[in-house]
Amino acid sequence: MILINFSHPLTDDQQAQVEALSGQTVERVIDAPAHFDHARSFAGQTVELVETCGLTPETWQSASILVNPPALNAIAVTLLAELHGRMGYFPACLRIRPVAGSTPPRYEVAEILDLQAQRDAARQCR
């Protein structure tokens, strides 16, 4: 699987948690931290960000891709729209949470969100 990280660097422990939760091996990590200029359009910056991943249209559509989205909500939702357009479906995304009582603060992978399954289930509510 290709893990595209649009957020803070992932630790070896977090990558191991991803593999345990997904049942797949992380073969490649693409680090593409999202640092946007608030004075510019987020739409254009999102396209630029996704282009830095260096994936071909064929890879976007056929590879097993997992996304760690950026924390800023406006960037995350714009990014998901861009990825859906390139992939043809919503990618699975990581949910990272703080480890309770850890000092200094540490973070762990809480779950893998299957956004496409969420979308498909929501269609039943129409």
Give the helices and strands, then pairings.
Layout: E1 2-5, H1 12-22, E2 28-31, H2 42-51, H3 57-62, E3 65-68, H4 73-87, E4 92-98, E5 107-113, H5 115-122
Helix pairs in contact: 2-4
What keyword list fits this structure?
single chain; 126 residues; alpha/beta; 5-stranded mixed sheet; 5 strands; 21% strand
Structure explained in plain terms:
The protein is an alpha/beta fold and 126 residues long. The protein has five helices and five strands. It starts with a strand and ends with a helix. It has one domain (2-125). Helix 2 (42-51) crosses helix 4 (73-87).
| Secondary structure: helix percent | 25-40%
Q: Based on DSSP secondary structure assignment, what is the total number of beta strands? A: 5
N-to-C SSE series?
A: EHEHHEHEEH
| Stretches with pLDDT under 50, minimum 5 residues | none
Number of domains: 1
| Main pleated-sheet profile | 5 strands, mixed
- What is the general shape? globular
Distance between the termini: 33 Å
How much strand content do the residues show?
Answer: 15-25%
* Category by helix and strand content: alpha/beta
* Rg of Cα set: 15 Å
Averaged pLDDT, please?
Answer: 97
Treating each run of at least 4 consecutive H or I residues as one helix, how many helices? 5
